[in-house]
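Dear colleague,

Following up on yesterday's call, I've attached the two folding results inline so they're easy to grep. Please treat them as preliminary; we haven't cross-checked anything against experimental data yet. The first protein's sequence and structure tokens come first.
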Amino acid sequence: MTTPDVDGAARFLAGNARVLDRRRFERLFSGGDARPVRDAVAAFRNSDGGFGHALEPDGRTPASQPAAVAMALGTLDEADAWDEKLVAGACEWLAANAPAEGGASFVEPTIEGWPRAPWWEAEEGRPASLFTTGQIAATLHARRAEHRWLDGATDLLWRRIDELDDPGPYGFRGLLRFLQHVPDRSRAEEAVERVGRLLFDCDVVALDPDAEGEVHTPLDFAPNPDSIARHLFDEATIEAHLDHLAGSQADDGGWTFNWLAWSPVAASEWRGSVTVDALRNIRVNGRL
């Protein structure tokens, strides 16, 4: 069993990661306080209550974007640095900028003219994204938040689950995280069986830990032992993917990602983010 080099990861983060991910690491692995994480997240906040400024490294507009809001709220939750004022402002931004059907788009038109990954394109009509909507709604439900945006997003996600066909790998990730935390547990347990069947029918999960390319693994859909989708995968498969994750630490101490590195700055920022993610996932599964 490979054991990650945590000290090596700390040195990698010190030399390569942004303050946000250094503070995440400090909080999660070195007994750091929650306040610096909160302050690091707040540095990406806009006066409209949303978050931008490349908090999500692939979208480098200063303007508020749903993916940046998702990352902001997820980071506050992960570090137990929840801040009601920041959250309330984000919810108000979400409500003011929701698509007609509710929820959140993937990319807002304010990305135009700014550096961005090739897939960061605003869709005509601003449809709701299952990925961003699911991620944000899940975090708010996990924290037992209440807001009119969350009510509408929850209704939207249930409707989309009832009509689900092939939402793509990121759509599945958003939906499964939503089902992990939505308060209606009996409905969630019923829904995950149908969503789980589609996950395999649509062939979006790579069961081979050595699969190459931009693949999505069981740990992307069921990262924690208590994940609602964990029962979809046998123990041997999970263990193999944990072995692969732990063994994927690079010689420089960090982890990397399997999607297009379109910008040196974005690539460096993503490596800091996924390095903390990897260590967190390894630890929560009892490997650290």
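Below is the second protein, in the same order (sequence, then structure):
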Amino acid sequence: MQRLIDLPRVIGDRGKGLGHERLLPLTWLSATCLDAPVVAVAWQWLFASVFGAVIAPPNRLALFLTAWLIYLADRFADCASIPAGAPISARQRFCAKRHSIWIVLIVLLLIIDSIICLTLIERRTRMIGSGIAGAIAIYLAVNHFAGWIWQRLPIKEIVIGFLFAAGTIAAIHCTDSRFVVSVILFGILCSLNCLSISVWERDLDIAQGKESFATAHPQLLWLPQAACLVLGALALCIAIAGEGRIISLCLTSSAIFLVFLNHASSLSRDEHVALADIILLTPLVIPLSRLFA
């Protein structure tokens, strides 16, 4: 019922996301699907640095290319499923206008990434990565061919967040309890990132007939922001205790930035979404601070 109430207002707002709003330069990272792979590589570097893991260059490249490939394919399928005449976001419009380039890029990335993974990645990491890739393939199939399931089981954003976290640390073979806790908190942060986006894009999802946490539970739109505060406080306490301090401080910073982003009413929907991944780049502050020290 709530969806039907919101729908007329959404349809009447067709101009939003169609190019009439101002766009930040960083929005291009989101439009080209480059934000997610950059975030993945940044956090992989952070985890490896803190827990003493050595990541070979092919592993870093494979993570970047795989994340980019997955997000390109997901964006392409997402655009293909938009009903005719429905409002679209800036990043969807960017993809829709470049279908041919998108297809060529996906094919090239698939070939290059496959060669790297099959020839330059060690067997253990390749096996773990294959398992995660299989889980991602299942998610993509469910999301695009049985999206109705998220209305009954609204865990879409949580699944995305933890799959992303798992892929990020796949090449780091560590069983330390601090590592496990840090990865779980990172998965929660990624999930809250996706949950926040679902809140910002709720009207758009309704208009396009898509399911998300926000469309399934309109009475809980406050939850991602509150959970970000809890995560930020928890990670800060862990940092004060000295357990994985650098990772905990990055988690705290990103969570708090996400809270502020939820309050930034002056930003457009597309700017909110673009900046949601940018604020996850807190690990980059560390090498930059060393560079200018």
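For the second protein, one point worth flagging: The two ends are 57 Å apart (CA to CA).

Best wishes,
A.L.
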